[in-house]
Write a structure and sequence with these properties.
The protein is of the alpha/beta class. It is 53% helix and 12% strand. The chain has helices spanning 2-15, 18-36, 48-61, 80-89, 95-103, 120-132, 162-185; strands spanning 41-44, 73-75, 109-114, 135-140, 153-156.
């Protein structure tokens, strides 16, 4: 058991190196800035990454720690009717891109999550986002895979083992949620209103 814990901690320490932490801080800044400007965040992924997308949206719409107003974040994998209608009539590969086309405005952010970096529907969504003038965050293993050229704010790790990538992702987006919330609301005196 001790070996397993130490191995996981070593993986996390390697992942959160200075370069990755700088990228993380840049991402926090852009998410806070775009929310403050009235833009929204769209998030997409498959499987565990779809669950992560829902988790991120819930933290922003609800709250992470502070009692504050909701922030506009939408997970694109949550509407079964939309997902199945589009996939049945057209193709699953563009199921997120179609929603980006429907919901996004210039200045919004698309956050694509893919542990492999090669999820076709996430890639197509990122392509649509670039066409529409959105900012893009890419969160992936495998050094970014095919998301590299489509990502303005990369959060890529060199890890190839999916469970380890997912653990890194969880810590990463919790940090983003925590710090975006703090930047937007703690200065207004809400730091004393921490939810428990």
């Amino acid at each position: 058991m001790n070996y397993w814990i130490q191995h996981r901690l070593n993986c996390l320490e390697q992942a959160f190196n200075p370069k990755y932490c700088r990228a993380l801080e840049h991402t926090i800044g852009i998410v806070a800035r775009q929310f403050k400007a009235g833009n929204k965040l769209l998030i997409c992924g498959n499987g565990g990454s779809a669950a992560d997308a829902q988790h991120i949206a819930a933290e922003f719409v609800g709250r992470f720690q502070l009692h504050r107003k909701g922030l506009p974040a939408i997970a694109l994998g949550t509407n079964p009717a939309t997902l199945t209608a589009w996939s049945n009539d057209y193709e699953f590969e563009t199921v997120f891109a179609r929603q980006v086309e429907a919901f996004a405005q210039p200045g919004d952010i698309l956050w694509g999550i893919s542990t492999s970096g090669k999820s076709a529907n996430v890639i197509r969504a990122m392509e649509m986002a670039k066409d529409l003038g959105l900012l893009t965050i890419g969160m992936a293993g495998n050094n970014g895979g095919m998301l590299k050229d489509l990502t303005d704010y990369p959060l890529f790790v060199s890890e190839y083992h999916t469970p380890y990538i997912q653990e890194i992702h969880l810590i990463t987006y919790h940090r983003i949620c925590e710090q975006v919330e703090a930047q937007l609301f703690a200065k207004a005196g809400l730091e004393a209103q921490i939810a428990v």
